């Protein structure tokens, strides 16, 4: 990603009952005040900076179990 741009990371988690979806960053926190997660579980990072580079993890959890997927961001 280019520094200063907006990045979208999708997480296609579905199920019945619907799973609880959470995003986190390995070795760090999500950028405070510069991120949001929409109803489709897409993580948006605004005005990305080199410090935002790293691995982001989407975790979906329900009574049936837990699944996780990762995305690596290079700035």
Automatic annotation (TrEMBL):
**Presence of the UniProt keyword Glycoprotein in the record:** yes
Keyword terms: Cell membrane, Disulfide bond, Glycoprotein, Immunoglobulin domain, Membrane, Repeat
- Write the lineage as a comma-separated list: Eukaryota, Metazoa, Chordata, Craniata, Vertebrata
* Protein name (database record): ROBO2 protein
Q: Which domain of life is it from?
A: Eukaryota
Q: Report the record's Gene Ontology biological process terms.
A: axon guidance; dendrite self-avoidance; homophilic cell adhesion via plasma membrane adhesion molecules
Residues of the region (Disordered) are 1-21
Entry GO MF terms: cell-cell adhesion mediator activity
Main location, first listed in the record: membrane
- Membrane-crossing residues? none
Gene Ontology cellular component terms for the protein in this record: axon; plasma membrane
Is Cell membrane tagged as a keyword?
A: yes
Q: Pfam families in the record, alphabetically?
A: I-set
Compartmental location: Cell membrane
Q: Which InterPro entries match?
A: Ig-like_dom, Ig-like_dom_sf, Ig-like_fold, Ig_I-set, Ig_sub2
Q: Which ranges carry the Ig-like domain?
A: 1-75
